[in-house]
Give the backbone structure.
Amino acid sequence: MVEDDRLDGRQRRGRDTRAHIISAAMEQFCESGYRASSLRDIAARADITHPGVLYHFPTKEALLMAVLQRRDEQGRETRPVVGEMGRAALASMAAAAAHNETQRAMVELYAVLSAEATGPDHPAHAYFTERYERLHANVLEAYTVARDAGDLVDDVEPRVAAPQLIARIITAHLNTQLRVPLDAF
Amino acid sequence: MVEDDRLDGRQRRGRDTRAHIISAAMEQFCESGYRASSLRDIAARADITHPGVLYHFPTKEALLMAVLQRRDEQGRETRPVVGEMGRAALASMAAAAAHNETQRAMVELYAVLSAEATGPDHPAHAYFTERYERLHANVLEAYTVARDAGDLVDDVEPRVAAPQLIARIITAHLNTQLRVPLDAF
DNA sequence: GTCTATAAAGTGATAGAC
DNA sequence: GTCTATCACTTTATAGAC
């Protein structure tokens, strides 16, 4: 639940209701996905009414984007620095993956949302498509540089290895953290 | 799209509207998940109205179950036979995984639904939970029998290897088949 | 900045004609 | 077996009071 830091009963929180709404939305999207989460559900979690939410975020979609954006900001410090090369870039991706392990709620949210965003009409579709393409490009480049520097075992082909690395990290984390593991059978 | 086998314009299909509705629902659930798919969307795909759908399936939930059930029937022949042991059981799981590759739509549906069904109140939650538990138990037993028969490399621990195998198969397929790969970053 | 009240549209489901 | 019409409910979003 969203921790409750209002000073007393009447004057709710002097500052950042906004941050509380984002936390509440994160939890709700996590549990039910984006479409199945109503503004009323989210508002209730943040202890306000739904027009209260819409004062801070013009639309439900804007709220979703704010949630994704917060996650981007939180993850920034552990993300590989642009310009980092080969072996070093691969190493810092491993560090980022380890960091994700401590963020169960966010990983869950991403799992639910990225599956839901499979449809091209979903508000987060572009977000996830771009994100994956960028990630893939980065990993691919890191592998390529690492190979050219002689850091890779001989028969590792960057174009094959990149999606494999991404897939491995995704699985390892999702299936230890989801309440119901993703199931392809 | 659902193939269109009505004889001509007026008398729609002599038989199985039911099967067509299931196909249409499968496509729709695939694209948008369960909750975001309306009976009207599904009905339009099957070229009827939404009360027409509800004549064949009493509720939307019953329709979901019919979709999942069809998938169970289709997959039955490639599923490991009960009583198959160790190495043989592991081998037939590999065969089942290969078969899944030819069923892009179903795999996509499962990916979307199982993520959505993470919440305990989702109609398919129990379905996926039970399914995963049964799958895990089977794989675990197969590994255990294989080890006792001396078929495994020494330090392979069944209790560790089973979820790893499941995870690997899931990832490999999901991320080559989904329009937007699952993303944990 | 948050509320009550409400609008406009969509939802699953039912009743009854044909 | 499929339709039209409709019900009761929920949704996102807006208007206006405080």
Q: What stands out?
A: DSSP finds eight helices and no strands in chain B. Residues 79-177 of chain B form one domain. The two ends of chain B are 33 Å apart (CA to CA). Confidence is low (pLDDT under 50) at residues 4-11 of chain B.
